[in-house]
Amino acid sequence: MRLQEFWSRLDDRFGSMRAQSVARDHVFSVLGGRTAVEALEAGLPVRRVWLAICEEFDVPLKER
Length: 64
Description:
The chain is mostly helical. The protein is 61% helix and 0% strand. It contains 4 helices and no strands. The chain has helices spanning 3-14, 16-25, 36-41, 46-56. The longest helix is centred in the first third of the chain and has 12 residues, at 3-14.
């Protein structure tokens, strides 16, 4: 998964305003206590960050 696809999927799933909040404000324990943006900046794989968001927010399997 590329970074552009990550942001596109996030916007599609949550809407542009909430997507930014999910990525910048929500702390994920599975990402080492980081936000999605912090995890990406730390070099974690984009797909791993996306799947962490999906698990936390119960995104249906077909949308993952």
